[in-house]
Design brief:
By secondary structure, the chain is mainly α. The chain has 14 helices and two strands. The chain has a two-stranded antiparallel ribbon. Helix 4 packs across helix 7, helix 12 packs across helix 14 and helix 13 runs antiparallel to helix 14. It is elongated.
């Protein structure tokens, strides 16, 4: 892909988040409540796609009044080691991304062998070193297992690192079954209900305006699915930060993917009065947090998540 044609939408698809989030990260918007993990994914996706932002304050195209005098200074200085390393990382990320998506989609089924190394090198037009680095990345995520004289085999799904941000993003790109959406909903009930209680215990007066602001953005979304998802997502991520638990922050990618997956299936903007009702339910969570009422914070957050599960038509995991 040509670097000049890279769009925010391309980066958003690669990073598994909204275009608004991509814009905030790439423009250095520090006021947006975006997790460190999401910022990392956006930056890595932009680098992998070859995105080159324009410098702030510089026009898109300079038009000097008269042509500058010719200068015979030769080509710009190059740094081969740096450029090669950057290109290698980008190619490795691309190969890992493509193979990871195919594993999640079942193109390379669980228990099956990947194509031969030489075939994959030819298919992706990469060196053995790049391919093996990509395989190492996927092995670290629990997706692959290499054995000498046998080949590289796809591991069973229970061995996958399902909380890994890349694995979550690949699953989101492929799509969630009712079973998986139900499982995500159960995890959200376990994690976010208690996160709301912790937020009620640990919130300060400075935290509350931010939470209410995201609720107001939800209420103002109208028929815009994109605006509603962005406000809803940032509300939950900011609440997780207020809870003040480092392990909850590490689960931000899970919450992000679960929300986007559920809202992609069915959003309050699709129901008459759904946006106002959902905003009121989220406002009730903030009211409980503001009052320091942990029990009410749990109950109102449980209701919010259960409503999301209902709208998405998620099913509990099969035994």
């Amino acid at each position: 892909m040509v670097a000049s044609r890279i769009t925010m939408n391309d980066i958003a698809r690669e990073a598994g988040c909204s275009q608004t989030t991509v814009s905030f990260v790439l423009n250095g918007e520090s006021r947006a409540h975006i997790s460190a993990e999401t910022r990392r994914r956006v930056i890595e996706a932009a680098a992998a796609l070859g995105y080159r932002p324009r410098r702030r304050g510089t026009p898109a195209k300079r038009r000097p009044r008269s042509p500058p005098p010719p200068v015979d200074s030769g080509p710009p200085a190059a740094n081969p080691a740096r450029d090669n390393a950057r290109g290698s990382r980008s190619r490795t990320a691309h190969v890992a991304n493509e193979i990871g998506l195919r594993i999640i989609a079942g193109v390379y089924p669980e228990g099956g062998l990947l194509p031969a190394e030489a075939d994959l090198m030819a298919q992706f037009k990469v060196s053995r070193t790049v391919l093996r680095e990509a395989m190492k990345t996927l092995s670290g995520k629990g997706l692959l297992q290499a054995k000498s004289r046998i080949g590289t085999r796809v591991r069973p799904r229970p061995d996958w690192q399902v909380f890994d941000p890349d694995v979550l993003r690949w699953q989101a790109n492929v799509g969630f079954s009712g079973d998986l959406l139900g499982a995500l909903g159960e995890v959200r009930l376990i994690v976010e209900v208690e996160a709301a209680a912790l937020a009620a215990r640990r919130r300060t007066a400075e935290h509350l305006p931010g939470l209410y602001a995201w609720v107001e953005r939800m209420a103002a979304a109208g028929r815009s699915r994109h605006d509603f998802v962005d406000a809803d997502l940032n509300f939950h991520l900011y609440l997780g930060r207020i809870a003040g638990n480092a392990f909850l922050s590490a689960l931000s990618s899970l919450i992000e993917v679960a929300l986007i997956a559920a809202l992609t299936k069915s959003s309050p903007v699709d129901e008459p009065g759904g946006v106002a009702r959902s905003a009121a339910e989220h406002r009730a969570v903030v009211d409980a947090i503001a009052a320091g009422d942990e029990a009410r914070a749990r109950a109102t957050m449980r209701h919010v998540i259960e409503e999301g599960i209902r709208r998405a038509g998620a099913e509990p995991p099969r035994q």
